Amino acid sequence: MSTILSVKNLNKIYAGGFQALKNINLDIRKGEIFALLGPNGAGKTTLISAICGIVNPTSGQILVNDHDINENFRLTRTLIGLVPQELSVETFEPVWDTVNFSRGLFGMAPNRKHIESILKKLTLWDKRNNRIMTLSGGMKRRVMIAKALSHEPQLLFLDEPTAGVDVELRKDMWNQVKELKDMGVTIILTTHYIDEAEEMADRIGVINKGEIIVTENKRKLMQKFGRKKLTLDLNEPFNAIPDQLTRWDLSLNDDGTQMSYTYDSSKEDNGISELLAELSLAGISYKDVHTKQSSLEEIFIQLVHAS
After folding, report:
1. pTM, rounded to two decimals
2. CA distances (Å), 303 to each of 32, 220, 306, 307, in order?
3. Residues 78 and 151: beta-carbon distance below 8 Å
4. Which CATH code fits 226-295?
5. Cβ partners under 8 Å of residue 247, min gap 6
6. Residues 116-131 pLDDT 10s
């Protein structure tokens, strides 16, 4: 799969000496959904702003479709659509006018069919003549996505696209993002909702303190860093883990009716067979067994705390 965005050795140091980005290297593939995760102040918005030409990096190179943004700013900027975190729309303008105007800002010829198609895909067609001030917060965010897509970008940035949106609209927005991918748009999203990244992204990137900690395929990331928990529903409750089993990473729930074993899911020799044999020798019986894989949120917390 070819690369649409390449960030090389990117640094951003502000006048006061604070380094917001530290030697960032990142490649985004055409047609993928890439989720950039990180705590507040990690550098997510600064990185996006640098790629979109809003912030001037201190050093490094950014290529969009093999074009350097410093040497070909106008060209590269037309390839990029940006939906910022803050709602910033022309409140007194009708939906159609503001989306159509955004297309003109990029020097694109009028294309009524394209604008109509975007509004219909974002379920804004029935609101096309409404003034933006009359729309709900979720609808205003859809208008911002429509504005970002008006000039037919190849790369779309969604900075916290579902911030302030209720659960139902979040699910709807997820479906719309997947439809944008089907249209051939490459999408980079930042989000504080880890389940959002887990649901939508093809690859995950984690940034913390201005540095990229990891970039990995979502499934491989969960296999590589994830842990599994084997839980036994005991026939009789225990007050404590028996002495002969203390070498295992075992825990009991509050009422002692469940015993859990946490292990590295990437290892073939996970010790489960040996553990079950020792449980049998210890006379511990159970009525049910179930396992649970670490969630992406647990892996994210683990990575951030380790960096």
Report:
1. 0.74
2. 23, 15, 5, 6
3. yes
4. 3.30.70
5. none
6. 999 998 889 999 999 9
